[in-house]
Amino acid sequence: MNRIAISRRAMLKGFASGVLGVCTLPALSTLLARRAQAEEGRPHYFVFAYFSGGWDQLLLFDPRDGTQARFRAQQAYATNGSGIDVAYERLTDSVTKGLLAANPSGVVKPSGSNLTFGAAVPTSLLDHAQDLSVVRGINMETLTHEVGRRYFITGQFPRGLQAAGSALPTAVAGQMADGAALPHLTMGVESYNASFPSYASGVQALQPSDVSRALRRLGDPLPTAADEAVARYEAEADGCETQELDGDGLASIFRSSRLKQRSIIAAGLSSRFNFTFDTAQQTKEIKDLFKAFAIARAADLFGPVGQAALAAQVITTGVSRAVSLLLGNNLDHHDSEWTREHAPKLRAGLDALARLISYLKNSPHSDGGSYWDYTTVVAFSEFSRSPLVNGRGGRDHHLASSCLLAGAGIRGNVVVGGTSDQGMLVESVNPMTGALDAGGIAVRPADVHATVLAAMGLSDAHLAGQSPRKLTALLRGT
Amino acid sequence: MRRILIAGALWASACSSSPKSKPAPANLPPEEHPPIVVPADPASKRTGRVSLSQLRASFPVVLGNDASGRPLTWNTSSSSSPQSGFDVYARTLGEADFIGRTEDDRDASPIYVKFMDDAARSGCDQVLTADEKQNDPTRRTLLRFVSFTDTADTNSEGFRQNLAYLKLRFHGVKVTDDRQLEALQTLFVAAGSGSSVPIKDGWRAVCVALLMAPEFHLY
Prior knowledge:
The complex is a heterodimer of chains A (478) and B (219).
Chain A: H1 8-41, E1 45-51, H2 73-76, H3 94-102, H4 123-126, E2 132-139, H5 145-154, H6 168-174, E3 184-187, E4 203-204, H7 208-214, H8 224-236, H9 240-244, H10 250-266, H11 284-292, H12 304-316, E5 322-328, H13 337-361, E6 375-380, E7 384-389, E8 395-398, E9 400-407, E10 414-416, H14 445-455
Chain B: H1 2-16, H2 52-63, E1 75-76, E2 83-84, H3 85-88, H4 110-133, H5 156-171, H6 182-192, H7 198-211, H8 214-217
Antiparallel strand pairs in B: 1-2
């Protein structure tokens, strides 16, 4: 039988550590409790930016050097070739062409950055490179748009086409105090609520006027005396019929919503969403907002910059805690429109996101610092596009995708995971370090959700069935 | 007689006695799975919120028609080109479009209640206008048992009858005790106080309160 030998020195050392540990434990637990309390009281905002249709990672967050012959057509399609054709020469939009002429590799590495970016990432976003982190090689497990979209939105694989679980912004809004008027605003992005309070469900707004309408009375108001009388009646009347309906607490929820909507209207926030171009009516706040987001005409309000500006306004006015944005639309470029439209659309969406980050950085928060110090951002798509160009000059669907994370709780300038140089396949990763590791895990959307929630000090209990693994390499303070 | 008594005793014992537990048979096979627990309150019986399509259908039934026979509903925008608020705000209110959303949002959220408040005021304004133009009280929606000059003091029975009728019309609740109407009566009086048109404002407030009650939106 083997005996474990313990030296006298080691024993004393262990004993001393134990005594020290017992003595300092209460102090440590108090410190942690205080920190948790501080986190609890700390405001959080969340931006969930969706690029619809499947995005090309060679142009974004997982690029390959176009000067290397193995990533060019001649070798890419050969037997045992890389299976990756950057096809930069096919891109026809003038901005991308100009960038590739100046930098034929198509890979940008900002000074001091650990990240590499593709040709569709705008300079405005590169300016925030130190704040950005990327998760590469996320296994989306599907090539169906609806399934991939709902998988990333909820972190749970859908049942057929039907979403399972709750949207990430709903999980964020649902774990915060019900203080905001529209806790979760969504602009054209699907939202699901399976287990959080009803106030956390996404409220759809397609344009600023929708938000304005949600914050004010529409139509003629009741005369003041009548309105006050109705408010008193609502507060006092509680007939047997209402009690019968309250078996599941729904009547109580209805009554509290009725009370809340009165306070939302009374706050008078709707005027802050008068996104008018009429200079006589335009407030300085809106004028500055339009300037920050380069909004020059009404059509801009319906595009990425319009959505980003609205997101900025709902966050900085305290109207919303979580915002879902559709920053890229119709990216499903299987045909030659990929050569013309894909990069410009990605660039426009990411530029809007960069403007939103800048705006939040420049907006002081009442608790100190700027709004950016309290805001976490995730940009995603349902999957990526194939590394080989198809016969029609476009790219098809591809499983291994990436997402962009930044902001409060997220360590910037970190890359987690990656894809292989042979066909851009999912590679296993060590979640603690973010480095590729054959014995590691394949990153799934649930892992990203758990990481983002942890970054915000929130629970991922609703994902328990998914056994999510936090990518601690991305978490600040770990 | 004796037979009747015996039969009666058997019947009574069948109704009142609790079922006796059977002795457990010996050598039972092991259970394959735990007993299935039937929830006392199955999901199908839980309280739910009406959907937007149910509201779209309910409003004209509850509010009736205008003078020209057009069914009343929640109108938005100008009277020259009215649009149903249920259609205009369908997406904001979370109605399934079976493209991006495959299930109706049935939450009683503040934003839902806010838009329902808009709907209630729009509908109640219209129904009052329609009632004013209707000389035949039996064809009026809101003021069926009272006139536009009646108050609780001048026509107490008509007033009580009208409130009970509205409670039945809006909530499907048959009033059996006048105490059920006290809060609405107080509301009517308070809403009209200080108004140049107290009766109209009173009934408008009663209408809005009934449309904004949980009984209207939950079932």
